[in-house]
Design brief:
Layout: H1 3-8, H2 12-40, E1 44-54, E2 64-72, H3 77-83, E3 84-92, E4 98-106, E5 110-115, E6 125-130, E7 133-135, E8 138-140, E9 145-150
Parallel strand pairs: 1-9
Antiparallel strand pairs: 1-4, 2-3, 2-5, 5-6, 7-8
Length: 153
């Protein structure tokens, strides 16, 4: 055989490289599909109940409670990334100091909440609640009760 013929034949190392590249491509494609499946499942309904009390443990009626969240216009999480928008909802507490807020198509498991102080109060409560997972179209745990305090002035 001539030297030219030997150079044109692929070496076993090259074939192994192509196989490795194909395997890596298949693995990356699998990761991509898995990420789509995870994104698909992360859109759900949210409901939170707030109990607003003063610093003596008495209910505070008429307090404004607000939640801020990422709202998905699309019901499918895969597309929710592209059309998500920041939203908020406010509610007023009843005579027992309770307010329930619910919404649909929340993309992010993190919900921020605030309670601005009423007249006669100087402290406002707020924070962030992190839901665990989506089950049957609802973020879990469903309808947790968060206790918030407004301090008397």
């Amino acid at each position: 055989m001539s030297q030219t013929a030997q150079r044109s034949r692929p070496t076993p190392r090259r074939r192994l490289g192509w196989r490795t590249m194909k395997i890596k491509t298949v693995i990356l494609f699998g990761y991509w599909l898995a990420s789509l499946a995870v994104g698909w499942a992360q859109v759900g309904n949210v409901q939170i109940t707030f109990k607003v009390m003063d610093d003596f443990g008495k209910p505070v009626p008429g307090a404004k409670v607000g939640i801020y969240f990422i709202h998905a216009k699309s019901p499918l999480g895969v597309f929710a990334v592209n059309d998500a928008e920041k939203s908020h909802i406010d509610a007023m507490t009843d005579i027992n100091g309770l307010a329930t807020i619910g919404t649909s198509s929340v993309f992010d498991p993190s919900v921020t909440y605030t309670v601005p102080p009423l007249a006669g109060y100087y402290y406002t409560s707020g924070g962030q609640y992190l839901f665990k997972k989506v089950e049957n179209g609802r973020w879990q745990p469903w309808n947790p009760t968060l206790e918030l305090v407004q301090c008397n002035s």
